[in-house]
Specification:
Order of helices and strands: HHEEEEEEEEEEEE
CATH class of the largest domain: Mainly Beta
Strand order of the largest sheet: 1-2-3-6-5
CATH architecture of the largest domain: Beta Barrel
Protein name: Cell wall protein
Largest sheet: 5 strands, mixed, barrel
Distance between the termini: 27 Å
Structural class: mainly beta
């Protein structure tokens, strides 16, 4: 799935797709933050379940607790949200935060009717390698390949790591020209990104 400016979100959560399949909530499988999405595979907690199902696509409709998701090949898949489903959208959120038009990755257990009961859903998550082109108080101007991109600095959410150091909310070390990795949540409305973490010098 690629946004208007070429932000490729496909395959970002391959490792998460290979993780546990039991519907126990993603936090029991190692967390739900942006880093957890890219963590090493976790063995299933249920020996009766050999593998989890994985869906990535865009939400076309929401009916109660069921998401109708269209994958990149046009296939419609139904995702059931349960009381054990953990949902990330820059932070842990409730199902009400998921909107039609959102892109998502979901991991869960396939049901007999072909739907997937999700234990973890990451909404609009992106993992981008960028160059810093401009710095303002509440946003960064970035380039991702040939594409310009705005990264929003979110109060009490955006953190930075410099040269492998501890995470900090102080972005004063960030300089124009820095090459960085950005984990965050894509905004479908304008193709900008809310920054969860920006890492420089890793």
């Amino acid at each position: 799935m690629t946004g208007r400016h070429g932000i490729d979100r496909r395959s970002l959560l391959t490792s998460a797709a290979l993780g546990g399949a039991t519907i126990v909530g993603a936090s029991a499988l190692g967390g739900l933050d942006a880093d957890a999405a890219f963590a090493a595979p976790v063995p299933s907690l249920d020996p009766a379940v050999s593998r989890s199902s994985f869906i990535d696509g865009r939400v076309s409709q929401i009916k109660g607790s069921t998401l109708d998701v269209v994958e990149s090949d046009g296939t419609h898949r139904l995702i059931q949200l349960t009381n054990a489903t953990s949902i990330w959208k820059l932070e842990t959120v409730t199902a009400e935060a998921v909107e039609a038009g959102d892109g998502l990755y979901a991991r869960g257990v396939e049901m007999p009717d072909g739907s997937v009961a999700a234990d973890a859903v990451w909404v609009n998550i992106v993992n981008l390698y960028v160059t810093v082109r401009g710095i303002e108080r509440s946003r960064l101007h970035l380039s991702h390949g040939r594409n310009a991109l705005v990264g929003h600095i979110v109060a009490k959410r955006t953190t930075a790591s410099f040269r492998g150091g501890a995470l900090t909310s102080n972005l004063s070390q960030l300089k124009i020209g820095h090459h960085a990795q950005v984990l965050g949540a894509w905004r479908p409305a304008d193709d900008s990104v809310d920054i969860a973490r920006i890492s420089v010098g890793h």
